[in-house]
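Thread title: Can someone regenerate the structure for this chain?

I was given the following input by a collaborator and told the matching structure tokens would be attached. They weren't. Posting the sequence so someone can regenerate them.
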Amino acid sequence: MPQKGFLMYLKRGAEKEYKIRHDNLWPELQALLKAYGISNYSIFLDSETGILFASLDCPENYDENGLAKEAVMQKWWGYMEELMETESNAAPKTKPLEQVFYLK
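Best answer:
Regenerated them for you:
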């Protein structure tokens, strides 16, 4: 199963609220992510820079654009927009990372 890694950018002072909201992830969002085949999804914070590192497993046919159009995903992005640097559609600003090593 392919893995994806990417960076996101948290606004200063939003660390605690970001964690609270993810500790209370909406069941409908969790179900949506699983329906798209996403698993082993982790997000790590560098508290000095506010940079978030995300890692997830996804199927070969993972439809990232389809997920972005889902109403629940759009609602979550709107909910998180005040805490993160975002694109014009409220999606988190991301930077994809290239996998250069994997130990199974």
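The chain has a mean pLDDT of 96.
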